[in-house]
Design a protein that fits this description.
With 527 residues, the chain is an alpha/beta fold. It is built from 17 helices and 16 strands.
Length: 527
Amino acid sequence: MRIEIYDTTLRDGTQAENFNISVDDKLRIAQELDTLGVDFIEGGWPGSNPVTIEFFNRIGEIDLKHSKIVAFGSTRHIKNRPEEDANLQALLAAKTPAIIIFGKSWDIHATDALNISLEENLQIIEDSLAYLRPHVEHLFYDAEHFFDGFKNNEEYALKTVASAIAGGAERIVLCDTNGGTLPHEIPPIIKRVKEFVAGLSETVGLGIHPHNDSDSAVANALMAASSGVEQIQGTMNGFGERCGNANLTSIIPALVFKMGFDCGVKEHISRLYGCSRLVTELANLPHNHYQPYVGKSAFAHKGGIHVSAVKRNPLTYEHIAPELVGNSRRILLSDQAGRANILFKAKEWGIHIRPDDPILPAIIKELKELENLGYQYEAAEASFELIMRKLLGLRRNYFSFQGFRVTDNKYRMDKPPLTEATIRLSVGGVEVHTAAGGDGPVNALDSAIRKALIRFYPILEEMELVDFKVRVLSGEYGTEAKVRVLIESRDGEESWGTVGVSVNIIEASWQALIDSITYKLMKEEKK
Protein backbone atom coordinates (compact mmCIF):
# COMPACT_ATOMS: atom_id res chain seq x y z
CA MET A 1 0.00 0.00 0.00
CA ARG A 2 1.19 3.52 -0.80
CA ILE A 3 1.12 6.32 1.77
CA GLU A 4 1.20 9.97 0.70
CA ILE A 5 3.53 12.18 2.72
CA TYR A 6 2.11 15.66 3.23
CA ASP A 7 4.48 18.21 4.77
CA THR A 8 3.13 21.30 6.52
CA THR A 9 6.41 22.66 7.93
CA LEU A 10 6.02 25.88 5.94
CA ARG A 11 2.59 26.55 7.47
CA ASP A 12 1.90 24.61 10.67
CA GLY A 13 5.60 24.36 11.51
CA THR A 14 6.05 28.12 11.41
CA GLN A 15 3.48 28.46 14.20
CA ALA A 16 6.03 27.00 16.62
CA GLU A 17 7.43 29.38 19.20
CA ASN A 18 10.66 31.08 17.98
CA PHE A 19 10.32 29.49 14.51
CA ASN A 20 10.84 32.25 11.93
CA ILE A 21 11.92 31.87 8.32
CA SER A 22 12.18 34.17 5.31
CA VAL A 23 10.71 33.67 1.85
CA ASP A 24 14.10 32.47 0.59
CA ASP A 25 14.22 29.99 3.48
CA LYS A 26 10.76 28.68 2.57
CA LEU A 27 11.74 28.24 -1.06
CA ARG A 28 14.94 26.44 -0.12
CA ILE A 29 13.10 24.10 2.26
CA ALA A 30 10.46 23.40 -0.39
CA GLN A 31 13.15 22.45 -2.89
CA GLU A 32 14.80 20.14 -0.36
CA LEU A 33 11.46 18.50 0.46
CA ASP A 34 10.92 18.00 -3.27
CA THR A 35 14.31 16.35 -3.63
CA LEU A 36 13.49 14.14 -0.64
CA GLY A 37 10.35 12.98 -2.46
CA VAL A 38 7.59 14.47 -0.28
CA ASP A 39 4.28 14.24 -2.16
CA PHE A 40 2.59 17.45 -1.00
CA ILE A 41 4.09 20.64 0.47
CA GLU A 42 1.70 23.02 2.20
CA GLY A 43 2.95 26.53 1.50
CA GLY A 44 0.70 28.49 3.83
CA TRP A 45 -2.50 30.51 3.85
CA PRO A 46 -2.56 32.75 0.74
CA GLY A 47 -3.03 36.39 1.58
CA SER A 48 -2.40 35.93 5.31
CA ASN A 49 0.94 37.80 5.32
CA PRO A 50 3.51 39.26 2.88
CA VAL A 51 5.91 36.29 3.26
CA THR A 52 3.25 33.79 2.21
CA ILE A 53 2.07 35.96 -0.68
CA GLU A 54 5.62 36.24 -2.03
CA PHE A 55 6.21 32.53 -1.53
CA PHE A 56 3.26 31.57 -3.72
CA ASN A 57 4.32 34.12 -6.33
CA ARG A 58 7.85 32.71 -6.53
CA ILE A 59 7.33 28.97 -6.02
CA GLY A 60 5.45 28.77 -9.30
CA GLU A 61 8.66 29.73 -11.11
CA ILE A 62 10.54 26.75 -9.63
CA ASP A 63 10.45 23.43 -11.45
CA LEU A 64 9.68 20.90 -8.72
CA LYS A 65 10.38 17.31 -9.77
CA HIS A 66 8.02 15.41 -7.46
CA SER A 67 6.18 17.53 -4.89
CA LYS A 68 2.96 19.44 -5.42
CA ILE A 69 2.42 22.72 -3.62
CA VAL A 70 -0.75 23.08 -1.55
CA ALA A 71 -2.58 26.28 -0.62
CA PHE A 72 -4.30 26.19 2.79
CA GLY A 73 -7.50 27.96 3.79
CA SER A 74 -10.89 27.67 5.46
CA THR A 75 -14.47 27.16 4.42
CA ARG A 76 -16.30 30.30 3.33
CA HIS A 77 -17.72 32.81 5.79
CA ILE A 78 -21.40 32.20 6.46
CA LYS A 79 -22.30 35.67 5.12
CA ASN A 80 -20.48 35.20 1.80
CA ARG A 81 -21.39 33.26 -1.27
CA PRO A 82 -18.44 31.06 -2.39
CA GLU A 83 -17.72 33.18 -5.49
CA GLU A 84 -17.57 36.31 -3.30
CA ASP A 85 -15.55 34.87 -0.41
CA ALA A 86 -12.11 36.49 -0.15
CA ASN A 87 -10.54 33.38 1.39
CA LEU A 88 -11.67 31.09 -1.44
CA GLN A 89 -10.60 33.64 -4.05
CA ALA A 90 -7.13 33.89 -2.48
CA LEU A 91 -6.79 30.09 -2.64
CA LEU A 92 -7.54 30.11 -6.36
CA ALA A 93 -5.25 33.10 -6.95
CA ALA A 94 -2.32 31.12 -5.51
CA LYS A 95 -2.54 28.89 -8.63
CA THR A 96 -1.36 25.76 -6.85
CA PRO A 97 -2.08 22.24 -8.12
CA ALA A 98 -3.62 21.34 -4.75
CA ILE A 99 -5.85 23.11 -2.23
CA ILE A 100 -6.80 22.07 1.29
CA ILE A 101 -9.52 23.74 3.35
CA PHE A 102 -10.52 23.04 6.93
CA GLY A 103 -13.97 22.99 8.46
CA LYS A 104 -15.57 22.24 11.81
CA SER A 105 -16.24 18.60 12.78
CA TRP A 106 -16.96 19.21 16.47
CA ASP A 107 -20.49 20.48 16.97
CA ILE A 108 -19.52 22.92 19.74
CA HIS A 109 -17.08 24.63 17.36
CA ALA A 110 -19.86 25.28 14.86
CA THR A 111 -22.27 26.66 17.43
CA ASP A 112 -19.82 28.36 19.82
CA ALA A 113 -16.80 29.35 17.70
CA LEU A 114 -18.49 30.15 14.40
CA ASN A 115 -21.83 31.03 15.99
CA ILE A 116 -23.78 29.25 13.24
CA SER A 117 -26.24 26.36 13.22
CA LEU A 118 -25.15 22.78 12.68
CA GLU A 119 -26.95 22.69 9.33
CA GLU A 120 -25.27 25.92 8.21
CA ASN A 121 -21.89 24.40 9.06
CA LEU A 122 -22.64 21.38 6.83
CA GLN A 123 -23.66 23.72 4.03
CA ILE A 124 -20.50 25.87 4.05
CA ILE A 125 -18.34 22.74 4.04
CA GLU A 126 -20.08 21.33 0.98
CA ASP A 127 -20.44 24.44 -1.14
CA SER A 128 -16.92 25.73 -0.38
CA LEU A 129 -15.43 22.50 -1.70
CA ALA A 130 -17.86 22.32 -4.59
CA TYR A 131 -16.86 25.82 -5.69
CA LEU A 132 -13.13 24.96 -5.63
CA ARG A 133 -13.41 21.50 -7.18
CA PRO A 134 -13.46 22.46 -10.91
CA HIS A 135 -10.46 24.74 -10.54
CA VAL A 136 -7.86 22.48 -8.91
CA GLU A 137 -6.15 19.15 -9.58
CA HIS A 138 -6.20 17.91 -5.96
CA LEU A 139 -8.74 18.96 -3.32
CA PHE A 140 -8.38 17.89 0.31
CA TYR A 141 -10.52 18.53 3.38
CA ASP A 142 -9.08 18.94 6.88
CA ALA A 143 -11.75 17.74 9.33
CA GLU A 144 -10.63 19.96 12.20
CA HIS A 145 -11.04 18.60 15.74
CA PHE A 146 -12.43 15.40 14.23
CA PHE A 147 -11.44 12.98 16.99
CA ASP A 148 -12.83 15.20 19.75
CA GLY A 149 -15.94 15.81 17.68
CA PHE A 150 -16.41 12.11 16.96
CA LYS A 151 -16.17 11.21 20.64
CA ASN A 152 -18.60 13.98 21.56
CA ASN A 153 -21.14 13.50 18.75
CA GLU A 154 -20.33 10.68 16.34
CA GLU A 155 -23.39 11.20 14.17
CA TYR A 156 -22.68 14.86 13.49
CA ALA A 157 -18.94 14.37 12.94
CA LEU A 158 -19.76 11.82 10.23
CA LYS A 159 -22.28 14.21 8.67
CA THR A 160 -19.47 16.76 8.18
CA VAL A 161 -17.46 14.06 6.39
CA ALA A 162 -20.46 13.35 4.15
CA SER A 163 -20.72 17.05 3.30
CA ALA A 164 -17.04 17.18 2.37
CA ILE A 165 -17.41 14.15 0.10
CA ALA A 166 -20.50 15.67 -1.50
CA GLY A 167 -18.47 18.81 -2.16
CA GLY A 168 -15.80 16.87 -4.06
CA ALA A 169 -12.96 16.32 -1.59
CA GLU A 170 -10.67 13.44 -2.64
CA ARG A 171 -9.08 13.08 0.80
CA ILE A 172 -10.76 13.49 4.18
CA VAL A 173 -8.00 14.29 6.64
CA LEU A 174 -8.93 13.49 10.24
CA CYS A 175 -7.34 16.07 12.53
CA ASP A 176 -6.43 15.57 16.17
CA THR A 177 -6.21 19.33 16.52
CA ASN A 178 -5.93 19.42 20.32
CA GLY A 179 -3.48 16.51 20.34
CA GLY A 180 -5.30 14.72 23.12
CA THR A 181 -6.14 11.42 21.39
CA LEU A 182 -4.15 8.34 22.46
CA PRO A 183 -2.92 5.59 20.10
CA HIS A 184 -5.39 2.92 21.23
CA GLU A 185 -8.30 5.23 20.27
CA ILE A 186 -7.19 5.62 16.65
CA PRO A 187 -8.00 2.21 15.03
CA PRO A 188 -11.68 1.89 16.06
CA ILE A 189 -12.46 5.47 15.03
CA ILE A 190 -10.75 5.10 11.66
CA LYS A 191 -12.47 1.75 11.08
CA ARG A 192 -15.85 3.38 11.63
CA VAL A 193 -15.03 6.32 9.35
CA LYS A 194 -13.72 4.01 6.62
CA GLU A 195 -16.94 2.01 6.69
CA PHE A 196 -18.96 5.22 6.52
CA VAL A 197 -16.92 6.66 3.63
CA ALA A 198 -17.05 3.38 1.70
CA GLY A 199 -20.83 3.63 1.70
CA LEU A 200 -20.62 7.05 0.02
CA SER A 201 -17.66 6.83 -2.35
CA GLU A 202 -15.22 4.25 -3.67
CA THR A 203 -12.54 6.81 -4.51
CA VAL A 204 -12.30 9.06 -1.44
CA GLY A 205 -9.44 8.16 0.91
CA LEU A 206 -8.54 9.15 4.46
CA GLY A 207 -5.62 11.00 5.93
CA ILE A 208 -4.53 11.96 9.45
CA HIS A 209 -3.16 15.19 10.91
CA PRO A 210 -1.99 14.54 14.52
CA HIS A 211 -0.70 17.06 17.03
CA ASN A 212 1.65 16.12 19.83
CA ASP A 213 0.07 17.51 23.01
CA SER A 214 -0.07 14.01 24.54
CA ASP A 215 3.33 13.02 23.09
CA SER A 216 1.47 10.54 20.87
CA ALA A 217 1.50 12.19 17.43
CA VAL A 218 4.00 9.80 15.83
CA ALA A 219 2.31 6.76 17.37
CA ASN A 220 -1.11 8.03 16.28
CA ALA A 221 0.12 8.52 12.71
CA LEU A 222 1.57 5.00 12.57
CA MET A 223 -1.58 3.50 14.06
CA ALA A 224 -3.57 5.35 11.40
CA ALA A 225 -1.30 3.98 8.67
CA SER A 226 -1.83 0.44 9.92
CA SER A 227 -5.59 1.16 9.95
CA GLY A 228 -5.66 2.07 6.28
CA VAL A 229 -5.26 5.85 5.89
CA GLU A 230 -3.63 6.94 2.65
CA GLN A 231 -2.11 10.26 3.66
CA ILE A 232 -0.09 11.35 6.72
CA GLN A 233 0.43 15.02 7.50
CA GLY A 234 3.26 16.28 9.66
CA THR A 235 6.28 18.56 9.87
CA MET A 236 10.03 18.18 9.76
CA ASN A 237 11.37 17.65 13.29
CA GLY A 238 7.80 17.91 14.63
CA PHE A 239 7.80 21.72 14.67
CA GLY A 240 4.36 23.21 15.30
CA GLU A 241 2.17 25.17 17.68
CA ARG A 242 2.19 24.27 21.39
CA CYS A 243 3.88 20.83 21.63
CA GLY A 244 4.24 20.46 17.88
CA ASN A 245 2.96 18.31 15.03
CA ALA A 246 3.60 14.71 14.07
CA ASN A 247 7.31 14.39 13.37
CA LEU A 248 7.90 13.24 9.79
CA THR A 249 11.56 12.45 10.47
CA SER A 250 10.35 9.66 12.77
CA ILE A 251 7.25 8.68 10.80
CA ILE A 252 8.89 8.27 7.39
CA PRO A 253 11.59 5.74 8.41
CA ALA A 254 9.04 3.76 10.42
CA LEU A 255 6.72 3.55 7.41
CA VAL A 256 9.50 2.55 5.03
CA PHE A 257 11.77 0.31 7.11
CA LYS A 258 9.48 -1.03 9.82
CA MET A 259 6.05 -1.26 8.22
CA GLY A 260 6.88 -1.88 4.58
CA PHE A 261 4.78 0.92 3.08
CA ASP A 262 5.56 2.42 -0.30
CA CYS A 263 6.23 6.17 -0.11
CA GLY A 264 7.53 8.75 -2.54
CA VAL A 265 10.40 9.42 -0.13
CA LYS A 266 11.56 5.80 -0.13
CA GLU A 267 14.01 6.26 -3.00
CA HIS A 268 15.67 9.32 -1.43
CA ILE A 269 15.28 8.59 2.27
CA SER A 270 19.05 8.86 2.79
CA ARG A 271 18.54 12.64 2.45
CA LEU A 272 16.32 12.73 5.56
CA TYR A 273 19.11 13.64 7.98
CA GLY A 274 20.29 16.54 5.82
CA CYS A 275 16.75 17.81 5.30
CA SER A 276 16.08 17.71 9.05
CA ARG A 277 19.24 19.69 9.83
CA LEU A 278 18.60 22.20 7.06
CA VAL A 279 15.20 23.11 8.53
CA THR A 280 16.59 23.73 12.02
CA GLU A 281 19.53 25.74 10.70
CA LEU A 282 17.36 27.97 8.51
CA ALA A 283 14.90 28.43 11.39
CA ASN A 284 17.90 29.43 13.52
CA LEU A 285 17.00 26.86 16.18
CA PRO A 286 19.20 24.27 17.93
CA HIS A 287 18.87 20.74 16.62
CA ASN A 288 17.65 18.08 19.03
CA HIS A 289 20.64 15.76 19.42
CA TYR A 290 18.49 13.03 20.94
CA GLN A 291 15.89 12.94 18.18
CA PRO A 292 15.29 9.40 16.78
CA TYR A 293 16.81 8.61 13.37
CA VAL A 294 18.17 12.11 12.63
CA GLY A 295 19.62 13.25 15.97
CA LYS A 296 23.36 13.54 16.41
CA SER A 297 23.13 11.05 19.27
CA ALA A 298 20.69 8.65 17.58
CA PHE A 299 23.53 6.27 16.67
CA ALA A 300 26.17 7.38 19.19
CA HIS A 301 27.80 4.73 21.38
CA LYS A 302 29.84 5.43 24.48
CA GLY A 303 29.50 2.50 26.93
CA GLY A 304 32.39 0.06 26.62
CA ILE A 305 30.26 -3.07 26.23
CA HIS A 306 28.04 -1.34 23.67
CA VAL A 307 31.01 -0.08 21.64
CA SER A 308 32.64 -3.50 21.61
CA ALA A 309 29.41 -5.17 20.47
CA VAL A 310 28.61 -2.57 17.79
CA LYS A 311 32.08 -2.88 16.27
CA ARG A 312 31.50 -6.61 15.87
CA ASN A 313 27.89 -6.33 14.72
CA PRO A 314 25.99 -2.99 14.61
CA LEU A 315 22.66 -4.80 14.90
CA THR A 316 23.41 -5.46 18.56
CA TYR A 317 22.59 -1.87 19.53
CA GLU A 318 21.19 -0.21 16.37
CA HIS A 319 17.65 -0.83 15.16
CA ILE A 320 18.54 0.31 11.60
CA ALA A 321 21.77 1.22 9.81
CA PRO A 322 22.28 4.99 10.29
CA GLU A 323 23.34 5.45 6.67
CA LEU A 324 19.82 4.55 5.53
CA VAL A 325 18.56 7.95 6.70
CA GLY A 326 21.80 9.82 5.98
CA ASN A 327 23.02 9.78 9.58
CA SER A 328 26.27 8.18 10.75
CA ARG A 329 27.43 5.98 13.60
CA ARG A 330 29.44 7.77 16.26
CA ILE A 331 31.78 5.85 18.47
CA LEU A 332 32.48 8.56 21.00
CA LEU A 333 36.16 9.45 21.36
CA SER A 334 36.86 7.33 18.25
CA ASP A 335 38.20 8.37 14.85
CA GLN A 336 35.52 6.30 13.11
CA ALA A 337 32.88 9.03 13.50
CA GLY A 338 32.12 10.89 10.29
CA ARG A 339 34.20 8.77 7.88
CA ALA A 340 31.23 7.70 5.76
CA ASN A 341 29.87 11.25 5.58
CA ILE A 342 33.18 12.68 4.42
CA LEU A 343 33.60 10.06 1.71
CA PHE A 344 30.02 10.64 0.58
CA LYS A 345 30.49 14.41 0.36
CA ALA A 346 33.87 14.09 -1.36
CA LYS A 347 32.27 11.97 -4.08
CA GLU A 348 29.43 14.48 -4.42
CA TRP A 349 31.92 17.34 -4.92
CA GLY A 350 34.10 15.43 -7.39
CA ILE A 351 36.98 14.94 -4.93
CA HIS A 352 38.63 11.52 -5.09
CA ILE A 353 39.51 10.09 -1.65
CA ARG A 354 40.05 6.39 -1.06
CA PRO A 355 38.67 4.88 2.16
CA ASP A 356 42.28 4.03 3.14
CA ASP A 357 43.69 7.43 2.15
CA PRO A 358 46.00 8.64 4.95
CA ILE A 359 44.57 12.17 4.64
CA LEU A 360 41.14 10.98 5.74
CA PRO A 361 41.93 10.88 9.50
CA ALA A 362 43.25 14.46 9.25
CA ILE A 363 39.99 15.62 7.67
CA ILE A 364 38.01 13.81 10.37
CA LYS A 365 40.14 15.35 13.10
CA GLU A 366 39.72 18.83 11.66
CA LEU A 367 35.96 18.38 11.37
CA LYS A 368 35.67 17.13 14.97
CA GLU A 369 37.73 20.01 16.32
CA LEU A 370 35.68 22.58 14.41
CA GLU A 371 32.37 21.04 15.49
CA ASN A 372 33.60 21.16 19.08
CA LEU A 373 34.17 24.89 18.62
CA GLY A 374 30.58 25.34 17.45
CA TYR A 375 30.78 25.07 13.67
CA GLN A 376 27.92 23.27 11.92
CA TYR A 377 27.95 22.53 8.21
CA GLU A 378 24.46 21.21 7.37
CA ALA A 379 23.45 24.58 5.92
CA ALA A 380 27.04 25.69 5.19
CA GLU A 381 28.45 22.95 2.97
CA ALA A 382 30.49 25.45 0.97
CA SER A 383 32.67 26.11 4.05
CA PHE A 384 33.19 22.38 4.58
CA GLU A 385 34.16 21.81 0.95
CA LEU A 386 36.75 24.59 1.26
CA ILE A 387 38.20 22.92 4.37
CA MET A 388 38.43 19.57 2.64
CA ARG A 389 40.09 21.00 -0.46
CA LYS A 390 42.57 22.95 1.67
CA LEU A 391 43.66 19.82 3.55
CA LEU A 392 44.01 17.96 0.25
CA GLY A 393 46.08 20.77 -1.28
CA LEU A 394 43.36 21.48 -3.86
CA ARG A 395 42.42 24.99 -2.75
CA ARG A 396 44.04 28.04 -4.30
CA ASN A 397 44.67 31.23 -2.33
CA TYR A 398 42.90 33.85 -4.40
CA PHE A 399 43.80 36.66 -2.00
CA SER A 400 45.57 37.18 1.30
CA PHE A 401 43.73 39.07 4.03
CA GLN A 402 45.96 41.26 6.21
CA GLY A 403 43.49 43.06 8.45
CA PHE A 404 40.23 44.94 8.86
CA ARG A 405 38.66 47.60 11.05
CA VAL A 406 34.97 48.38 11.50
CA THR A 407 33.71 51.55 13.17
CA ASP A 408 30.24 52.67 14.26
CA ASN A 409 29.75 56.38 14.89
CA LYS A 410 26.50 57.29 16.67
CA TYR A 411 26.78 61.03 16.18
CA ARG A 412 23.11 61.84 16.89
CA MET A 413 20.63 59.91 18.97
CA ASP A 414 17.82 60.49 16.48
CA LYS A 415 19.89 59.24 13.51
CA PRO A 416 21.20 55.76 12.65
CA PRO A 417 24.92 55.19 13.20
CA LEU A 418 27.43 55.80 10.43
CA THR A 419 29.25 52.52 9.81
CA GLU A 420 32.53 52.14 7.92
CA ALA A 421 34.82 49.19 7.27
CA THR A 422 38.47 49.48 6.30
CA ILE A 423 40.42 46.49 4.99
CA ARG A 424 43.90 45.55 3.83
CA LEU A 425 44.50 42.57 1.56
CA SER A 426 46.78 41.51 -1.29
CA VAL A 427 46.21 39.73 -4.56
CA GLY A 428 49.23 38.25 -6.31
CA GLY A 429 51.57 40.57 -4.45
CA VAL A 430 49.47 43.67 -5.12
CA GLU A 431 48.37 45.25 -1.86
CA VAL A 432 44.96 46.89 -1.63
CA HIS A 433 43.83 49.21 1.15
CA THR A 434 40.24 50.40 0.87
CA ALA A 435 37.14 51.40 2.83
CA ALA A 436 33.38 51.33 2.37
CA GLY A 437 30.28 52.34 4.28
CA GLY A 438 27.23 50.18 4.86
CA ASP A 439 23.98 49.57 6.68
CA GLY A 440 25.60 48.01 9.74
CA PRO A 441 29.04 46.51 10.30
CA VAL A 442 28.54 43.29 8.29
CA ASN A 443 27.20 45.09 5.24
CA ALA A 444 30.08 47.58 5.42
CA LEU A 445 32.64 44.79 5.71
CA ASP A 446 31.06 42.93 2.80
CA SER A 447 31.10 46.07 0.65
CA ALA A 448 34.74 46.83 1.47
CA ILE A 449 35.89 43.29 0.61
CA ARG A 450 34.06 43.36 -2.73
CA LYS A 451 35.38 46.85 -3.50
CA ALA A 452 38.93 45.60 -3.00
CA LEU A 453 38.56 42.40 -5.03
CA ILE A 454 36.26 43.33 -7.89
CA ARG A 455 39.04 44.78 -10.09
CA PHE A 456 40.86 41.45 -9.91
CA TYR A 457 37.78 39.23 -10.06
CA PRO A 458 34.94 41.00 -11.94
CA ILE A 459 32.85 37.81 -11.67
CA LEU A 460 32.08 38.82 -8.06
CA GLU A 461 29.70 41.47 -9.47
CA GLU A 462 27.08 38.75 -10.07
CA MET A 463 27.24 37.43 -6.49
CA GLU A 464 24.98 38.71 -3.71
CA LEU A 465 24.41 37.99 -0.02
CA VAL A 466 20.78 36.94 0.47
CA ASP A 467 20.57 35.82 4.10
CA PHE A 468 22.39 36.38 7.38
CA LYS A 469 21.67 34.52 10.63
CA VAL A 470 23.26 34.67 14.05
CA ARG A 471 22.88 31.95 16.68
CA VAL A 472 24.10 32.32 20.27
CA LEU A 473 25.81 29.03 21.11
CA SER A 474 25.94 29.40 24.89
CA GLY A 475 23.90 31.59 27.17
CA GLU A 476 25.91 31.31 30.35
CA TYR A 477 28.28 34.12 29.39
CA GLY A 478 25.66 36.70 28.43
CA THR A 479 27.03 39.18 25.89
CA GLU A 480 30.37 37.32 25.96
CA ALA A 481 28.75 34.21 24.50
CA LYS A 482 30.15 32.54 21.40
CA VAL A 483 28.02 33.03 18.28
CA ARG A 484 27.66 31.17 14.99
CA VAL A 485 27.00 33.22 11.85
CA LEU A 486 25.40 31.57 8.84
CA ILE A 487 25.50 33.40 5.51
CA GLU A 488 23.70 32.43 2.33
CA SER A 489 24.97 33.81 -0.99
CA ARG A 490 23.87 33.28 -4.55
CA ASP A 491 24.68 34.08 -8.15
CA GLY A 492 22.66 33.49 -11.28
CA GLU A 493 23.10 29.71 -11.04
CA GLU A 494 22.93 28.54 -7.43
CA SER A 495 23.05 29.48 -3.77
CA TRP A 496 25.50 28.32 -1.11
CA GLY A 497 25.97 28.60 2.64
CA THR A 498 29.05 29.47 4.69
CA VAL A 499 29.67 29.68 8.42
CA GLY A 500 31.82 31.46 10.98
CA VAL A 501 32.15 31.08 14.77
CA SER A 502 33.63 33.46 17.34
CA VAL A 503 32.88 35.33 20.55
CA ASN A 504 33.07 38.40 18.30
CA ILE A 505 30.12 38.65 15.91
CA ILE A 506 32.14 40.71 13.40
CA GLU A 507 34.92 38.13 13.37
CA ALA A 508 32.42 35.30 12.82
CA SER A 509 30.80 37.30 10.01
CA TRP A 510 34.18 37.94 8.41
CA GLN A 511 34.95 34.22 8.39
CA ALA A 512 31.66 33.43 6.67
CA LEU A 513 32.09 36.28 4.14
CA ILE A 514 35.60 35.20 3.18
CA ASP A 515 34.45 31.61 2.69
CA SER A 516 31.53 32.79 0.57
CA ILE A 517 33.71 34.82 -1.79
CA THR A 518 36.39 32.11 -1.95
CA TYR A 519 33.77 29.50 -2.82
CA LYS A 520 32.46 31.67 -5.65
CA LEU A 521 35.94 32.09 -7.11
CA MET A 522 36.67 28.37 -6.75
CA LYS A 523 33.37 27.52 -8.41
CA GLU A 524 34.21 29.71 -11.40
CA GLU A 525 37.70 28.24 -11.66
CA LYS A 526 36.30 24.67 -11.70
CA LYS A 527 34.19 25.59 -14.72
